[in-house]
Amino acid sequence: MTSDYKRFALTRAGQAVVVVLLAYVLTFLVISVLPGDAITNTLRDPQHGLSEEDIQRIVAFYGLDQPVIVQLLLSLGRFLTGELGFSLQSNLPVSQIVGDALPSTLTLATSALLIAIVFAVAIAYGAQYLPGKWAAIVRSIPSFFLSVPNFVIGLVLIEFFAFRLHSFTTTDPNSPVATLFAAVTLAIPVSAPLAEVLIASLDHESRQEYALVARSRGITEAKLFAKHLVKPSALPSVAMVALIVGELLGGSVITETIFGRDGIGTVVQKAVTGEDQPVLQAVVSLSAVVFVAVNLVADLASPLLDPRVKLREKVGA
Amino acid sequence: MTLNTKDRNVSADLLTVHGLSIAYGPTAVVHDVSFSVAKGESLALIGESGSGKSTIAKAILRLLPHGEATATGRVALNGQDVLALPEKHFRPLRGRELGFIPQDPASALNPVRTIGAQAHEAAALLGETDPTVRRAKILDVLEQVGLPDPARVYDSYPHQLSGGMLQRVLIALTVLPRPALIVADEPTSALDVTVQKLILDMLTELRRELDISLLLITHDLAIAAERADSLVVLKDGSVQESGPSLEVFASPATEYARSLQADVPALHPDRYRNQRITLAPAHDGGSRTPASSAPDAGLQIDVRGVTKRFSAGGKDVLACDGVSFSVERGRTHALVGESGSGKTTAVRLLLGLEQPDGGDITVAGQSTSGRSRADVREIRRHLQLVYQNPFTSLDPTWRVGRIVREPLDQFGVGTKAERAQRVREALEAVGLPSEVASRRPAHLSGGQRQRVAIARALVVRPDVVVLDEPTSALDVSVQAGILELLSKLQRDLGLTYLFVSHDLALVRQVADTVSVLRRGQVVEDGPVEEIFHRPQHPYTRALLEAIPLATAPTEEQTSKQLAKATA
Question: Most buried of B74, B140, B153, B275 (most Cβ within 10 A)?
Fold first, then answer.
């Protein structure tokens, strides 16, 4: 597009980087003000069986004998060069731990997102075009979805499909079918707010005069939906999808536990119980990066989708 | 009943509506309406908001909301009962036989698709499948409706075009499939007067050329009489009166049609004048000055050479370019111009909502430049504004009492009891019952809301009230009530009005002096009568010509038309 758009995109990307750095700093500070010295507590745990030399080496590496601000700068500098440190529990590089767990979680979250979008569009379409009574029932689905906790959905699905129908076995949680059910579990509560936004904007758009005028030209309802209503109704949903990614990251912890999958959720769970500061720091930062990146994409997409969006940077500059 | 007034050989009526009744749930909104439109003819449905005219139009187009509205009776298009057809058989008639031009062009096109993309839907109705042929036809019709650069319009999004251009686009898309009948729902009420005239002229010409019948929905009797062969006057969903336009217009048979006719500003330029003439001696004598306390009875507002520049998108726009005007105490001065003429900016400068780049504004003999903010605020307390649209200018969550009291709270006037008393007086002055104070705006009609807005302006006892198109969002008959009220208040309280409007017919009724603005400059000013009878500037003449029925049809014309109708 234009140079205005380039400037807009660069500004937004710059802001995104700042947000990620702030998230990193905040996480670091929160972990370091927690009561007790997490790192030294873990290191001195006799179960670890670390020698005094090892401990000294680790203390020097993280600068644990120095003020918090020095530790922060040290840590931040390493983060910027992609160096995430070592797990205090397993002594493995954090990048390796996260890297091993990431594909499983990404598969789960991505399929959950797609399923959630399909659910939301189907619900919104049904709410708009099914005959009276059915539309009312479909309209109540989002609040139902929202009110059932995702572990209940997961347990019900496992009970029914795994134990009764034998659609999949819980012993192989990474099989495609098992992944599908885990993704559905994760998608259901997440699809609810998306469906609500879609229903509301479809209601709004279908009452606009342009919809009436298009109908007066003899366009069919299906064409009206596909050609006229979907795009303007989707605009508010794009921002919603970006927010949903945050929920997916949180929800995956529970879902992975229920379905016995190894993923970021399991890594977080172990890191929290074991006070594994470098791992926690890495996972939180990773979540921040994913969340910020998805929102950046949504931001950059909106001027391309909606010609009315004015690039505010243009006036400000 | 055939309302065909031309001695043309017409075999049958194109559209016949017989015993049409429409109800929203249990509430009936249209009762037993019948009329017919012959081929090539035009008929106007006229009435105020709530008269059911748009509902009838939507019933004919079968665009009433599903399941919410039920229509009974017979609507026949070429002898085929439209209401009885299943949607599958009706859809082929949409666009091809029955065209629709909506009220607000700005919301009638999908905002996120280009004009071209939407035009293809209309072109598809011709049965043409080749996209390049379709495009050529679209460009042709866009040119036909007078759009200067069809290719650019084709690639534009709706928000990139003006209201007048958008309405041309919509008319183009409607006539493209050559329908037999066009239903136009207030096609020009959202447009400037001069644009309105151009659009209506263009529509009339196209209709003649392509032999298209027209069902025109309007609240404006003058437009209806000027543009339609026959009229159907509606009130509360029932037909009051119908017949050939000139007949109904010249000698309305029912009370309601008579009052509608009396409320058309263009026909009764002196309606409020008698009330104002009585003011002149009082003004000269200076004996009656309840509100104005300054000793000199001269100029209340004096704006001298005011300039204001805005920069938008790197371009500088002179919104006001050396604008000067003055208003005598107790008089009404009108600022006239179309959108973008700078009249709104002039008002904002006067009210202190913007600072001028140059020039001087004097209010009651005190210059506002070079004073502290507090001083200016005190001067401006004597200047109050009544906004254009009472549907958006009142906070929907506040009760009327609080809305009217707000300026008193802002300026910290009096005790609580005194304020309550003032609110009661203000409501009484605008002719509203005191129980209105406990209601919210949603429970009031448009006219009542505008009265609340006037009460809010009056409550601080100002000397000057700025009226920014105070009746443009209201029906003609409601407008008459508000104008009546304003002239009574001016007489009783000695108020000075600055009346901002694009409607010269209205201005002629209410104002003493007028400034015509165009592109930020005053092109002509002087007493209203002089401007009306001897306009100097071509722009003023264009504005005057845009008034529908600027000259009422003479008796001779009417009788000729009657003779034709009975022949």
Answer: B153
> CB–CB of B61 and A216 under 8 A?
yes
**Is the predicted ipTM greater than 0.90, yes or no?**
no
CB B331 within 8 A of CB B299: no
Task: Decide: A213 and B102 in contact? Cβ < 8 Å.
Answer: yes
Dihedral sign of CA atoms B234, B235, B238, B243 in order: negative
- Nearest CA to B194 out of B335, B346, B339, B317 is that of B339
Please answer yes or no on whether B157 and A307 come within 8 Å at the CB atom. yes
Written as six digits, the tokens of A312 are 């505010």
CA A288 – CA A17 distance, rounded (Å): 10
CB distance B111–A232 less than 8 Å? Answer: yes
Return the CA Rg of chain A. 24
Residue type, B242: S
Residues of A in contact with B111 (CB under 8 A): 210, 232, 306-308
Same fold, B1-91+214-262+554-567 and B273-545: yes
Residue with tokens 């200067």, as numbered in its chain: B148
Is the confidence at residue B558, as pLDDT, over 70? no
Q: Residue B517: what are its φ and ψ, rounded to 5°?
A: -105, 140
Residue B460 backbone phi and psi in degrees, to 5: -90, 10
Cα–Cα distance for residue pair B93/B97, rounded to 1 Å:
5
Size of interface A-B (CB pairs under 8 A): 70
* Closest CB to B102 among A209, A220, A235: A209
| Chain A residues inside the 8 Å CB shell of B109 | 210, 213
More confident residue, B544 or B11: B544
Interface membership of A212 toward B (CB under 8 Å): yes
Percent of residues, chain B, with pLDDT higher than 90? 37
The answer to whether B18 and B76 have CB atoms below 8 angstroms apart is: yes
Query: B273-545, which class in CATH?
Result: alpha beta
Token pair 């017979």 is at which residue? Answer: B74
Q: Does B61 touch chain A (CB under 8 A)?
A: yes
Structural contact between residues B487 and B278, judged by C-beta atoms closer than 8 angstroms? no
0.80 cut: is pTM over it?
Answer: no
User: Chain A closest CA to B122's CA: distance in Å?
Assistant: 6
Interface contact B98-A216, CB threshold 8 A: yes
Contact B283, B328 (CB under 8 A): yes
Number of C-beta neighbours around residue A94 at 10 A: 24
Assess contact for B138 and B130: CB atoms under 8 A: no
Tens-digit pLDDT profile for residues B29-50: 999 999 999 998 999 999 888 8
Instruction: Check CB contact of B125 with chain A, cutoff 8 Å.
Output: yes
Write out chain A's pLDDT in tens, 317 residues: 577 888 889 999 999 999 999 999 998 888 877 666 666 666 666 666 677 777 787 778 877 778 888 888 888 888 888 888 888 777 788 889 988 988 999 899 999 999 999 999 999 999 988 887 888 899 999 999 888 887 888 888 888 888 888 777 777 777 888 889 899 999 998 899 999 999 999 999 988 889 989 989 888 888 888 889 988 888 888 888 888 888 888 788 888 888 888 888 888 888 888 778 888 888 888 888 988 999 999 888 888 888 887 654 433 33
What is the secondary structure of B344-393 as a DSSP string?
Answer: HHHHHHHTTSS--SEEEEEETTEE-TT--HHHHHHHHTTEEEE-S-TTTS
Per domain, the residue ranges of chain B are 1-91+214-262+554-567, 273-545
Of the candidates B37, B23, B107, the residue with the CA atom closest to the CA atom of residue B73: B23
- Rounded Cα distance between B75 and B84, Å, is 9
Q: Distance between CA atoms of B267 and B160, rounded to whole angstroms? A: 37
Contact A198, A221 (CB under 8 A): no
Structural domain B1-91+214-262+554-567, CATH architecture: 3-Layer(aba) Sandwich (3.40)
